[in-house]
Amino acid sequence: MPPYSAVNNGEKVEPVEPVKTVKKYHIISGTVFRYILIDAFFSFFVAFSFFFVVFFLNQLLLMAQDVLSKKVPFYQVALLVIYALPQVVSLSAPFGSLVGTLMTVGRLTSDNEILVMLSSGLSYFNIFIPALVMGIIISLFSFVVNDIFLPIGTVQLNILSRQIAVSTPAVELGSYSVKKFRDTVIVTGNVDGSAIEDICILDRSGSRERRIIVAERAEVRDSGSKGLNLDLTNAFVHSSQETERSNYDYATSTMLSYWIPQEDIVSSTNSISPREMSSVDVYHEIRDRTLELNAKIDEQYNRILLSGLALEETLRKGSQHSLWNRRRAYKDQFIQDTESARFIAADWMLNSFWVEFHKKFTLPFGAFSFVFLAVTLGLFAKKSGQMVGFFFGVIIAVIYWSMMFVGQTMARRLGYSPFWMMWLPDILSLVIGMALTLMRVRK
């Protein structure tokens, strides 16, 4: 008898064929794709505008503190703001992607549109694919801004800052700050207008003398393009020969005038930082600096070897030898050379270049790494999806930015790995987002 045949009231029932299982594929609806993508970009624009205003106002406040209070002309302030825009855009784009995706998916969830899509046979791929496309587009846009326009804007910003420094040198001096002008270092206390309390000046004179000048009070006399004059009150001056420290002089004065020429002010801002370079230029600079650093380390290791051999030879010859009394000096020299090697190897400037190099990639990549996390969290929204998404997006953005700031500080000042310190926020957001995504899809 064929399968599933039966007899009902004496009548033979035709056999029923077994139901065939049809393999389902993830179908991407073009209409749904366009609908979600357009909505996501609109939400991104809203979120991007919010972060743009926040970072832009922060930039204005910084300039108001350092520039506007010194009465810099308005057109120069406007140019400073324009040149700072690439930095604002590069920071706003990744966070705008995060919050925009959360707002979009949160609204779709709260309006039950995702439930309708799933009931219609569509899978979660119809939500993730538009979000991934938007994340990739924003990541590429952010990378271009971060790698091309940000260095250009930073270069122009520094050029304008040098012009302001030459025209109004008093801008360079702030409260409780350290400022270097070629061979001169100025440490200031509280600055109130043109008056400075507790000032310390370290410099080298024309005869290569080291000088330390300490004064209770200083009055800034801005000479415009000629330089910067400081009228010091109750000053103490200590000078010594660079090659013979025991040969020194000191003097006191109730009034002393100190002048910093224009060329010293200009030269203090001429160095190129990694922020003024593209990622390729930063990598080339890292390669050259690494070669120089390795040469310095090899040279220092040779010194350690020589001082160690001298100490070993002295100890082997014993107390009867004439060099026995120098064993402590050889030991101190060996320890000093070893510490110097450690200091040379921990090159903070090279670490700064590595931090900036990774930062040119990690910040734009954040727009992509946020996608899985944002979509999954947005699916949990029940009511007021857009507001909930915006709220959670801001919290995640603050946590991410805090991790970036702490990691950058730890890499530059404490010598931690720049790679892990800069990539850890992206890796965490990507791993957590993918884990939540798998849990949601399997549920």
Which structural traits does this protein have?
single chain, 443 residues, alpha+beta, 7-stranded antiparallel beta sheet, two-stranded antiparallel sheet, flat
Q: Mind explaining what this structure looks like?
A:
The chain is of the alpha+beta class and 443 residues long. The protein has a domain at 183-267. Helix content is 62%, strand content 16%. The chain has 10 helices and 9 strands. It has helices at 30-66, 74-110, 113-119, 125-167, 262-267, 279-317, 327-345, 348-378, 385-413, 418-442; strands spanning 6-8, 11-13, 178-181, 184-187, 191-192, 195-204, 209-222, 227-241, 248-261. The strands form 2 sheets. Strands 3, 4, 5, 6, 7, 8 and 9 form a 7-stranded antiparallel beta sheet that branches. Strand 6 (195-204) and strand 7 form a beta hairpin. Helix 2 packs across helix 9, helix 6 (279-317) crosses helix 8 and helix 8 runs parallel beside helix 10 (418-442).
Helix and strand arrangement:
Blueprint: E1 6-8, E2 11-13, H1 30-66, H2 74-110, H3 113-119, H4 125-167, E3 178-181, E4 184-187, E5 191-192, E6 195-204, E7 209-222, E8 227-241, E9 248-261, H5 262-267, H6 279-317, H7 327-345, H8 348-378, H9 385-413, H10 418-442
Antiparallel strand pairs: 1-2, 3-4, 4-6, 5-6, 6-7, 7-8, 8-9
Helix pairs in contact: 1-2, 1-4, 2-4, 2-8, 2-9, 4-8, 6-7, 6-8, 8-9, 8-10, 9-10
Mean pLDDT: 79
What is the multimeric organization of the chains shown?
A: single chain
- Return the structural class: alpha+beta
Termini Cα gap: 42 Å
Number of helices: 10
- The amount of beta strand, in percent, is 15-25%
Low-confidence stretches are 18-25
Total E-strand runs: 9
Global Rg: 33 Å
Largest beta-sheet characterization: 7 strands, antiparallel
